[in-house]
Amino acid sequence: MIRFACPHCGKTFTGADDLTGQHASCRQCGKLFVVGATPTAAARPALSQPPERAPISQHQAPAPPPVRYNPTPAPPPSLFQAEPALPAPLVEEQHTWTLDDSARASRPGNLRVNRWRWFRHYPKWPMIWFSSLAFFVVMACLVHGSFWIFATLLLAMNWLYWQRVSDHFRHGCANPAIILSLQPMRIAVSTDLTKGVGNYPVIKIIQKSLPTACGQQPRVGTLLATVSLYFPSSEEEPHWSDFDPRPIDCATGDLDAMQRVMSGMDADDWNELRNGLKQLPRPYRCGLYHVLPSE
């Protein structure tokens, strides 16, 4: 007879001598093991009590605790440790067919135009270009093939028109605006027409009826955003001659995009608008007004 133990749980068994070297299954833990194999250290039960240590003599100093060697100790934190440099913001290159690439907006709208929404607010020119194209297509089909030349030119003009609208809201500059009246609806837009030297703050009042203002019910005093293109002036003038603001509600109904444009304008922009309104004569009339910068 031989006596052996399960190397997994430590349960002891007895059996015939010919069981040595054979595989057996433990009745307690159910695991397989080789009979007669020495139990591993991990399978041995842990001691319930730590081994007794020899008493320390009064004249014998206790042994120092073992020192663990760290080959690459971490440096202590510094109070003046420089923060990691942030990557420079990416500026999208402006490649357009309808705009001058020499001047770029400091705060572009980056909006995608909904053509049906634009058509509902500004139907005049879309109807002119589309009806002209349709007329020459009909003439080319019914009268003479030479009218296809004019139809092709009108097709190109239609494409350029919509490209211009798209470039307006994508590359134009976002400006703060406020509703001044509802009947008729007049909107004041603030910007600086400077070309980079000095200041030339202006306010332009436009008349445009809007069912919503940045997704809200229009009221007197409601803040909204516009996107503008600027008209060039002579080289001697240090500022642009005029600008063309269009409410972003005329181009998109995306509330997230509207909120993004609104959040891009800080408190100074809205203060410039309110300060300029105090300098305008009453009642408010449409037009371009030069105002003094706020101190």
The gist of it:
The chain is built from five helices and ten strands. The protein is an alpha+beta fold and 295 residues long.
What does this molecule look like?
24% of the residues lie in helices and 20% in strands. A 6-stranded antiparallel sheet has the order 9-8-5-6-7-10. Helix 2 (124-142) runs antiparallel to helix 3 (147-171). The radius of gyration is 41 Å and the shape is elongated. With 295 residues, the chain is an alpha+beta fold. Residues 39-61 and 67-94 have low confidence and may be disordered. It starts with a strand and ends in a 5-residue tail after the last strand.
Low-confidence stretches are 39-61, 67-94
Beta content comes to 15-25%
> From N to C, what is the helix and strand string?
EEEEHHHEEEEEHHE
Give the CA-CA distance, first to last residue: 105 Å
Instruction: Please give the number of β-strands.
Output: 10
Estimate the helix proportion, in percent.
Answer: 10-25%
Please list the strands of the largest sheet in the order they lie side by side.
9-8-5-6-7-10
Q: What is the typical, i.e. mean, pLDDT?
A: 80
Q: Give me the number of helical elements.
A: 5
| SS-derived structural category | alpha+beta
Biggest sheet layout: 6 strands, antiparallel
Radius of gyration (CA) equals 41 Å
The dominant shape is elongated
What are the SSEs and their pairings?
Layout (H helix, E strand, L loop, with lengths): L1 E4 L6 E4 L7 E3 L6 E3 L80 H7 L2 H19 L4 H25 L1 E10 L2 E8 L8 E7 L15 E9 L10 E6 L7 H9 L3 H12 L8 E4 L5
Antiparallel strand pairs: 1-2, 3-4, 5-6, 5-8, 6-7, 7-10, 8-9
Helix pairs in contact: 2-3
